[in-house]
Amino acid sequence: MTKIQNQFLMKEQTIRSTTWAHHFIFLNCILAILTGFTYVYGSPQTESFISFLYLIVTWLGQISFLGFLAFLIFFFPLTFIGNFKVYRIISIVAAILLHSLLLVDAKLFLALKVHLTWSVVSLMIRDLTFNTGLNFNFMYIAIPLVIFLELIFARLATREIYRREERNNYFPAVIMTLVTACFITSHGIYIWADAANYEKITNLRSVFPAHYPMTAKSFLTTHGWIENITAKADGSSTSNIAYPLTEIKFEEKDVQKNVVTIFVNGLSYSDLDAENTPNLMRLKMENLSFENHFLPYDNLYNNLFASWFGLPIQYEQIFTSHSVENVSNDVMQKEEYLMRGFISAINGAEGKKLARMTGMNNNKLRNLTSDTVLLNEAADFIEKNAENRMAVTLSLNSLLNIYSADAHKRHLKLLDSQIGKFISKLEEKNLTERTMIIISSALGNKHIGGSSVYSKKKQRVPFIIINPDAENKGVSRNILTSSFDINPTIAVEILGVTTPCVNYGIGDDVLKIQHRDYIPTTQGNNLLLISQDAVTIYKRNGKVVTTTEEEIRPAKANLENLIRAMRDFNRFKK
Q1: In the predicted model, is pLDDT for residue 113 greater than 90?
Q2: H/E/C letters for each residue in 108-160?
Q3: Which pLDDT does position 541 carry in this prediction?
Q4: Fewest C-beta in 10 Å: which of 191, 264, 289, 549?
């Protein structure tokens, strides 16, 4: 008899817990929806009514779905413990924890446009002092408020199940029907947007947490209407890359400018002095010079790729193997620019590889025996085609073949003289009046030692812009710049590209940059952030160190900087 009574009591407790949980979860879903409006506020600006509609129905549908999922996975199974009081306590604690996670995720999205993942959580756990570079002080107010609301919700849910009178309350049913319709509508709109390649909607895919909308391809594949292309896709296919992110728009400049880019490879910033490089020093003093220009890689070809595409080397293989045009080259072809490249002191096979890194066809590239010949031929070419719009790239490589520091200085002095003569020829023909000349390097002086990880002294190279605009004469700027900035600068200043630089590179127009905390790059499996004072290295094993030319010391992870850098590198991956 006692056993039957216990079974009946447990069943009654389970039914009571289930009924209570329905009311409790319903109230928590409303709170979650209100909190979830943060994602709508922090989302990219919607540019059409249908994208705004998609954002609203996804907000209501996805947040409600997460509440339903929490009930199904956690709250419902716990009702079978058979103790109503214990169940209420556990549910209140669980609800407080889940809302706390939602608040942290919302903060991460507002600050960094990312959501909580295992990698982000591991970083936060590893940083025991929680010194992540983000401000979570709002949690001191939010958590007590959540606790207060959960206690009220628990009381309201308990009062609801003990009401004696029967009521026809259709409000919960109407709300549940509405959010279910929103959830279905959200996925339906996204399937259409994916099939139509409507980027104003597909760009909103990652706004909400744990949101994985069905795509047109996955929908059709699931129902057997098309073959599973993804499973057969070659790893090198461009289908996994979105470049550029949006359509490139440009406006013709009032004055059509040429661009001449000169890479003096093997030259570091510390090589510049009045004795060995008087001409480069003069050009530096008389024009626009960036004093903190760093190469992201310790490899000539990687730095040339970074310069010409404004992208990290992770994209090199797929871009070069599929002949993907960088934004500048694409616009130049539309504007009928005459594009030529001149390289020196490098063998044929290496020359072809260099051509791929700059996105230039072999028939537009001249491989010459020496820097002297190169500069003479380039000057003649520019003079003969003075009536055309031109984009000319010079890669001077003779310094790379010098095997002693003393010989390097002697050869640099000769090369400096030749560069001076080259610029003088252009000035004599008045070609510099409508030509932007960029002088930099794609590889530092190999005779400079330093840190084995990243030598700032070696990797710091000159970056001089000879611009016809008078306001840029004799200006020296200390802002951080890198090879990633060259392509965006040419696109904006020469070609009049109006599409924001973030849509086709991780660099920016150096004439527009006001402040920059670091330059991101990679070395093997390590992520490097190059700042004014040091280089912070995030290693694969989770350790973080800061290096200078003198020492290497342990450091704390800055979650904000790390996630932003990772987002920059993965921006063009689908």
Answers
A1: no
A2: HHHHHCCCCCHHHHHHHHHCCCCCCCCCCCCHHHHHHHHHHHHHHHHHHHHHH
A3: 66
A4: 549
Domain count, the chain: 2
pTM: 0.71
CATH number of the domain that 478 lies in? Answer: 3.40.720.10
By C-alpha distance, which of 344, 341, 347 is closest to 364?
341
Q: What pLDDT score does 123 carry?
A: 61
Span 158-164, mean pLDDT? 75
Helices (H), 310-397: 316-321, 327-334, 348-357, 371-384
User: Which H or E element spans position 479?
Assistant: strand 476-482
**Which of 465, 485, 515 is the endpoint of a domain?**
515
**Tens digits of per-residue pLDDT, 40-91?**
988 887 878 898 999 999 999 999 999 889 888 888 888 888 788 899 999 9
Residues 85, 183 within the same domain: yes
* CA-atom Rg of the chain in angstroms: 30
Instruction: Count Cα atoms within 13 angstroms, Cβ side, for 473.
Output: 6
Q: Determine the structural domain holding residue 51 and report its residue range.
A: 2-214
